[in-house]
Amino acid sequence: MDITIPTEDTMLELGQNLAAVLAVGDIVYLLGNLGVGKTTLVRGIARALGYKGRVTSPTFTLMNIYNSIPPIYHFDFYRLEGGEMQDLGLEDYLEREGISLIEWPRLKEADLPQEALLVEINLQDDDYEKERLVHIWAQGDKYQSKIEGLMKVVYPGHR
């Protein structure tokens, strides 16, 4: 699924739409260069799930917990090396009653679940002032149904 995102408000709206199809236990991997809007997307998800506090990238803290319903575990692995990920106890959070949103998942280096929803945000012409191109795809049947649900939310009337 590909979506063009012209503004920050549109990215927030995409996050709200994404929240409509997420459930407890879901994992979303967020891919894309620094500053493309990954945390803005997370902010949209958090707002839709009732979190009213500040949403920031956990680049230095590695994880933020947002007390929404269900809770959101927001990870950022940008500063980690592959071996360091083994010591995080990540599986403890992935098995809790929340939604895990993981920026910079480093899928080739980490022992992360293969089944997930993946959201890749790209700049157009390497220009931060232009619209973003968002590609969303699924790994696993559970997440494929979420893509179908998202299509219905983003494109009403889609069958």
From TrEMBL:
GO cellular component, one term: cytoplasm
Gene Ontology molecular function: ATP binding; metal ion binding
Places the protein is found: Cytoplasm
Pfam families, per database record: TsaE
Keyword tags: ATP-binding, Cytoplasm, Magnesium, Metal-binding, Nucleotide-binding, tRNA processing
A single GO BP: tRNA threonylcarbamoyladenosine modification
Main location: cytoplasm
NCBIfam families: T6A_YjeE
Similarity annotation: Belongs to the TsaE family.
Protein name: tRNA threonylcarbamoyladenosine biosynthesis protein TsaE
